[in-house]
Amino acid sequence: MTTTETSPTATAEEFGERLFGAVLGAQLVQAAYLGDRLGYYRVLAAEPMTAPELAARTGTAERYAREWLEHQAVAGVLTVDDPAAAPAERRFRLPAGHAEVLTDVLSPNHVLPLARMVGGLGQHLDALVGAYRSGGGVSWAQFGADAREGQAAANRPLFLGALPREYLPSVPEIRAVLERGGRIADVGCGYGWSSIGIALAHPGVTVDGYDVDGPSIDIARQNAVEAGVSDRVRFHCADAATAEGRFDLVAAFECVHDMSDPVPVLATMRRIAASDGVVLVVDERVAETFTAPGDEVEQLMYGWSITCCLPDGLAHPGSVGTGTVMRPDILRRYARDAGFTDIEVLPVDDMFFRFYRLR
Questions:
Q1: What is the pTM assigned to this prediction?
Q2: Residue 31 CB partners (closer than 8 Å, separation 6+)
């Protein structure tokens, strides 16, 4: 990851070039959003097509399909067999590497969901402007399916792959829980991929997922059935405070920064953990202190914060307004207020996430 492309003292021409490049990038994101929603990429991943063929296969208008195909070819996303052919006869191909990024839902390189989120959040800019002026917020429910589905799809490769199979077993106390078939609570489980991933990788465990978003829990239950783990993974449309009994591992994956008041949730996690249980928080790997300019991860996290996480947090009365950029000292303060002694940063190496054990 790199720092910003131009320095704060760039000339007007230099910064103008940077902003112009960002405009091209924004247009590419908009085109990717259309390609995803209309099913264009999935069809093209199977075989090359002309505009009439793509339109017929996807139930869309040929003139729009042609313009989209030509944009994608001009932008270097697609290749075209014969640019000199008549418009209706040009055949467009999606290269294998590009197809992985755009259509392989289990690949760590599947970046398309981020474009889905950016495109979807853009539909709420008027509401965001109003929130910035009033100090209010725009809730997760208002952001709707693009935000829910985009975030879930973005995390799915990690939650089904490296998280349960590499990262969690690398922590000795957590590995012991997984190996003996312990009881696990997944707080803020969303679409349930973290719960499902843990159950698939470790057949002896049972997982209870908790989330207050009803549509997410409905999808999570369906996902568990399709994954064949619904006998060991249960999802609850409820606060984790309703949990019964004690858990060997209580985890919150990429959600604490979204909570309007995280201290009571962390206190609940502490309460429902067994006496020798592990309490784990996985959240964004932002810099430990504010510096400017920042690297690309820092820019990405602030980008999510100004358009999604902070507005969602401030949509609820009494919010502490954490935002996406929850630095370790902020979590440490929340944890101590919740009754923990301290936090420990675990030696798990991931570009986007930091792993904390709450002591």
A1: 0.93
A2: 68, 71, 72, 75, 77
